[in-house]
Amino acid sequence: MDVRTLVVDDEQEVADAYALRLRGFCEVETTYGGESALSIIAESPVDIVLLDRHMPGMSGDDVLAELDERGFYGRVVMVTAVDPGVEVLEMPFDDYLCKPVDREDVRAVVDQQRQILAYETLGEFFSVEAKRAVLEAELSAEKRREHEGYAEIAAQAAHLERRTRRLLTDAGILDQFDQIEREDV
Predict the structure, then answer these.
(1) Domains of the chain: which residue ranges?
(2) Tens of pLDDT, residues 110-132
(3) Which one of 51, 89, 128, 150 is most buried, by most CB atoms within 10 A?
């Protein structure tokens, strides 16, 4: 599995323990503060964030709000000792685990969130790829080369296909899209 997970916790031992539990299960990176988490996410693709709520400086709640504002395309799991209150209704996370979390639960939540992200990405890919395929069928090769929108949608489709193939355990479903006949120009 090629899912990219970021563990964010100000308690280094806790972050490292979760990373150790995920070793060999997925690609995992750790960081010990909110600002560094945002930097890592800005610089490299991250699929799943395991995020502590209470950290000095920038809290997990602040990181979560910033990720939401930036339009983070991934899944966020709060992993915290803070009991959830009614304020969680307004928070844009995807799951919430109370510490301590055992090895099986850490792996299970990462796998569950990977599957959800994979199918969300697959749906987006099919939508974008349908538009690209229609344009390819309707426009000559020369017109496609000259059309800026076609180049953008083709690049977006390629990106989504790569990410979907990386996240899905069985990417054979992608091949089904090619089975649809479209009229050529």
Answers:
(1) 4-114, 119-179
(2) 999 999 999 999 999 999 999 99
(3) 51
